[in-house]
Amino acid sequence: MQCVRKQNVRSKSQELLHSAHGKASASDNMRRLGLEGDTDLQFLLNGGDLLKVRSNSWKKNRYYKLQEDCKTVWHESKKTFKSKQTFSVEEIEAVRTGRQTEGLKKYTEDAVEGRAFSILFKGRQKSLDLIASSDEEAKKWVSGLVKVVSNTNNLTPQKKTEHWIYSCMRKADKNLDKKMSPKELKSFLQHMNIEVDDEYAKMLFEKCDASNCGYLDGKEIEHFYKILTRREEINVIYGEYAKTGGLMSAADLQNFLLKEQMEDVSPSDALQLIDKYEIDENAKAKQLMTKDGFLMYLHHPEGLIFNPTHKSLYQDMNQPLNHYFISSSHNTYLTEDQIKGPSSTEAYIKALVKGCRCVELDCWDGSDGEPVIYHGHTLTSKILFKDVIRAIKDFAFKTSEYPVILSLENHCSVEQQQIMAQHMISILGSALVTKPLGDKMPTCFPSPEELKGRFIVKGKRLGKLEDTFSDEAKAADDGSVTEEEDDEEQEKSKTSKSLKLAKELSDIVIYCKSVHFHGFEDSRDKQSFNEMASFKEGQAVKLAEDSANEYISHNTDKLSRIYPSGLRADSSNYNPVPLWNAGCQIVALNFQTPCTEMDLNQGLFLQNGQSGYILKPSYLRDRATEFDPITLTRGPWLKQKILHVMVISAQQLPKVNERKHSVVDPLVQVQIYGVPADTTMKQTQYIENNGFNPMWNENFQFEVCVPDLALVRFLIEDYDSTSGNEFIGQNTLPFNSLRNGYHHVPLLNKNGDLLSSAGLFVHIMVVHSE
């Protein structure tokens, strides 16, 4: 949350309440978004009729309009004339033109292509399929929404705070008189997630009500706003180093960066930060940083906890493919549970956009000769294989340019396997790996760098890689063509054991040939580098616990894929960390399920440019390694460090329960995930009735033996002694990506999306253990 410059406080605070209603508010908010006078945005504010499409029989006209706050879209039914809030622009993940979603493809004709568009939401919320009255109107809707979403996401923390406070003021001003009564002030504080007793509310009101007229207006709201946005902890830190007439000179800022942030910076580096983040032009001209400029710096990448050099690609991408952890999804097609949940191409798109590099395709014979994807023997819906391949092609390299592995679970007849191969070859074209790279038969995997922009098929293959160019029979019996045969599915999959494998499909399996695991010795003696096994979670965890060093050695030249137990009908996940500790590369999780395990996955793959590939530590790439995460004998993996964490404060935490009088009692957990010796958790006391600006000032210390494999998770919960704590927000990041000093920790919601205004403020110090 931002402190506010003195010369601007009145205009901002008055603007917040006085523009809460009427025409002025729209122009004020357009200006805040940097879109003043934008014709596309004005089009959204005027609103218009759109045809909402849900099915063949459900297509209804709705009047949609962007509200004056420029962040909420409402719609009105022409039949009932009832208006209701539809969604916030902050919930939008993407806006797509044309008939790109399954719904629009299925329920509309080609003729509406230019008028159709879809709004895709974060999390599990269903997409909104719409048709405008003309191509031109559709373009205006799409262009306007894209601008609003982009500019909202790029608002400075100061602007986000103003937006949020404005929204709360608007809700509290019940009689729309643009003034604040004592009752409205208390309601406003509750909207902002602060609960105060009547005496404190009365004291606060009287302190601001200089005119003694019984309500706050004008300068009194200005005073109240100043009290509200004060960050005492920032005042203390800034005051310690602002030694130049109460402001920070470049030398003062350099001193702070050297002593507190432990950064090796020069005076010119400090000057660059002043020039970049100081918001007072007079101070900037004198090469000084005000408190507001200092806070602005702390809210931007240079001041956040995650090492900005790790945000881009920084690891060697020229190692063999099996030397990397690979972000991997299980049953990628599902959006909910494994029994009756819907299947969707959108699930593939969401996983790929999140950086996932290995997706699963569970393939079955479909009607009309077209193979389909769904969870066999269940009520999950079916989608066409070719539609999935098209979606994968279109979105595979939006986030990462590194290779995507298509993990096939093949239950199809030979005829439909041939069609699968035809679709992959025709749709993916030259991007599909159909023969080994280079002129000679390989003895190890190519690197992610060599495979940029390519697709690799994982599945069963007839014969060895050396037989790539030899002529074989059109089909051959290779036993079962499926892999995931959990105990409860044995009976169901007996039929697939007699399925034959089409040569056309076999021929495009090059680097990831699926084989069954018969022990480490058998794998070492009989398997080629490109032959890989899939392990169900129970088997993999047992190997990681009982034979960790052998498993690690196995994974130095082979790929291993881990998948969740079939008993996880609810699409829950297992803990991936012990499998990463054992060097397993493809640890497949249910991406559709918000959970701690997905937080850990997102945290690990946050680094290295979100490429979906993380280079394993050297001791997980050396066949002769003696590393064992369980016993932890001495070796290069032991880099013992002490982590000191001071949990200072949080800002603008969201409500867990949206009821008016529900205010959170937040506490913070600092969790370490890694080798067993490092895995631990410590937590603060809870703060009663304050989600707006709780302050803890609590210190914790952790000993970390293997920092290369450690993840740090900051979790904020709403304390509840009766029914258990509830999730508020979290952030997980690699231990080696932590930065020393005072830093804000952005918070993510359950779905892994950024909470726009919420944050945690901490001090970090990592020192070598003696």
Question: How does this model look, in words?
Answer:
The chain is of the alpha+beta class and 770 residues long. The chain contains 23 helices and 30 strands. 29% of the residues lie in helices and 22% in strands. Residues 1-28, 473-497 are annotated as: Disordered. InterPro entries: C2_dom, C2_domain_sf, EF-hand-dom_pair, EF_hand_dom, PH-like_dom_sf, PH_domain, PI-PLC_fam, PLC-delta1_cat. Glycans are attached at residue 211.
Keywords:
disordered N terminus; EC 3.1.4.11; 770 residues; 30 strands; alpha+beta; lipid degradation; 29% helix; C2_dom; 23 helices; 11-stranded mixed β-sheet; lipid metabolism; globular; 7-stranded antiparallel β-sheet
Structural class assignment: alpha+beta
Shape: globular
Residue-averaged pLDDT, rounded? 88
The count of β-strands is 30
The number of helical segments is 23
First-residue to last-residue Cα separation: 38 Å
Largest sheet: 11 strands, mixed
The radius of gyration is 29 Å
Task: Summarize this entry quickly.
The protein is α+β, with helices and mostly antiparallel strands and 770 residues long. The chain has 23 helices and 30 strands. Residues 505-621 form the PI-PLC Y-box domain.
Describe the SSE topology:
Layout: H1 6-18, H2 23-32, H3 39-46, E1 48-53, E2 59-66, E3 72-77, E4 83-88, E5 92-97, H4 102-107, E6 116-121, E7 128-131, H5 135-153, H6 157-172, H7 182-191, H8 198-208, H9 219-228, H10 232-241, E8 248-249, H11 250-259, H12 267-277, H13 281-285, E9 288-289, H14 291-298, E10 324-329, H15 345-353, E11 358-364, E12 372-373, E13 383-384, H16 385-395, E14 404-410, H17 414-428, E15 455-459, E16 475-476, E17 501-502, H18 503-506, E18 512-514, H19 520-526, E19 531-536, H20 537-546, H21 548-554, E20 560-563, H22 577-581, E21 586-589, H23 596-604, E22 613-615, E23 641-651, E24 666-673, E25 680-683, E26 695-704, E27 711-718, E28 726-734, E29 741-748, E30 754-768
Parallel strand pairs: 10-21, 11-14, 14-15, 15-18, 18-19, 19-20, 20-21
Antiparallel strand pairs: 1-2, 1-7, 2-3, 3-4, 5-6, 6-7, 8-9, 10-22, 11-12, 12-13, 16-17, 23-26, 23-30, 24-25, 24-27, 27-28, 29-30
Helix pairs in contact: 1-9, 3-5, 6-7, 11-12, 12-14, 15-16, 16-17, 20-21
